[in-house]
Specification:
By secondary structure, the chain is an alpha+beta fold. The protein folds into two domains: 98 residues, 2-Layer Sandwich (Phosphorylase Kinase, domain 1); 220 residues, Aminoglycoside 3'-phosphotransferase, Chain: A, domain 2. Helix content is 46%, strand content 14%. The protein has ten helices and nine strands. The strands form three sheets. A five-stranded antiparallel beta sheet has the order 1-2-3-5-4, with helices on both faces. Strands 6-9 form a two-stranded antiparallel sheet. A two-stranded antiparallel sheet has the order 7-8. β7 and β8 form a beta hairpin. α4 packs antiparallel against α5. It is globular, with a radius of gyration of 20 Å. The N and C termini lie far apart (41 Å). 41% of the residues are buried.
Length: 327
């Protein structure tokens, strides 16, 4: 554990003591996640602290400090997110909090389960994120999806997947291509709502028959279809085409939904480029080779999306370009 992790663990143990009165020892903290994002997440197994998860963050990522305002606002709006029990401003962009422990059953844990079980869980997730998209935030969100952010995602894909993973000459100036600029412009012009930003199977917890959302600190305005694409075309789960089609129809039929199949496919193209860039970056630069194993699946799904985008779609030229590069 690095120095940030040690400092974070000590902070969480002190906060647990202040909240519960328990003298928590380091051996009673189980690290759930410790990453390059400047966050430490730990579960306390002390008898007096059951049901609590501790989160500590630094200023390494700008969105870390957005977790608490989003958690408070989303709960006020009736969205299923963890309850916050205690919090502390540690200064210098650092902070800590104790939140509801939702258990360990993420949507990802259902990989390989029966179609019936998957449908039930995914439909709960779709209902939860639909409510998320209907929220009218009265707190500050992260900067909205715009042309600059979509372009950053494309650059991320080019640098890490095309450049580092494939050593492809196509990486140079990728986002400057006319196909990329046209897609970015069209995406940025579409109607926006609050979006999760990373709505995939690891960030959806199943509690009873309900789905709870976590890791929503990147919440911002964008296309709701970006979240739908993140879920339905998630390389972690690698859903079948038939199951994906059923779930897409379910999502489009939810009351008040303004999502369209065309925008779902366009967002899937954009999201998968971002995800593949992340897999290569985390795998090569952050020392986690497990993410490199996801690249072939992600590429196969991306190729399928490119093939499914109709020729009259505003992003069809980009889909053709990506398909050619990955052939």
């Amino acid at each position: 554990m690095n120095s940030t992790g040690i400092s974070g663990l000590q902070t969480l143990m002190r906060l647990l003591h202040e909240y519960t009165g328990a003298a928590v020892q380091e051996g009673e903290m189980r690290v759930v996640a410790e990453g390059a994002s400047g966050r430490l997440i730990a579960r306390c197994v002390h008898p007096s602290c059951r049901g609590l998860i501790g989160i500590y963050w630094t200023s390494e990522r700008k969105d870390n400090a957005s977790f608490l305002p989003a958690a408070d606002g989303l709960r006020r709006a009736g969205v299923n997110v963890p309850k916050v029990y205690a919090r502390e401003d540690c200064g210098g962009g650092r902070g800590a909090c104790l939140v509801q422990d939702l258990g360990e059953k993420s949507l990802l844990r259902l990989k390989g389960k029966s179609t019936g079980e998957l449908l039930e869980a995914y439909r709960a997730a779709l209902r939860a994120v639909h409510k998320f998209h209907m929220v009218q935030p009265d707190w500050e969100l992260q900067p909205a999806f715009d042309e600059a952010l979509y372009t950053w995602e494309q650059d991320y894909f080019a640098e890490h997947l095309l450049g580092r993973h494939f050593h492809s000459v196509a990486a140079k100036g990728f986002s400057e291509r006319a196909e990329c600029r046209a897609a970015v412009k069209w995406l940025a012009e579409q109607e926006r709502s609050p979006v999760h930003r990373d709505f995939q199977s690891q960030n959806i917890m199943l509690v009873g028959g309900d789905a709870y959302l976590i890791d929503f600190q990147g919440m911002r305005f964008g296309l709701p279809e970006y979240d739908l694409a993140s879920l339905l075309y998630d390389p972690y789960m690698d859903l079948s085409d038939d199951l994906r089609a059923i779930l897409l129809e379910d999502a489009l039929s939810l009351p008040g939904s303004r999502a369209t199949p065309q925008r779902v496919l366009a967002c899937a193209l954009q999201r998968l480029m971002q995800a593949l860039g992340a897999f290569a970056n985390i795998g090569y630069n952050q020392g986690n080779p497990w993410y490199l194993e996801l690249i072939p699946t992600g590429i196969r799904i991306l190729r399928g999306v490119c093939a499914a985008i109709p020729s009259n779609s505003p992003v069809a030229p980009l889909a053709s370009c990506v398909r050619s590069i990955l052939s």
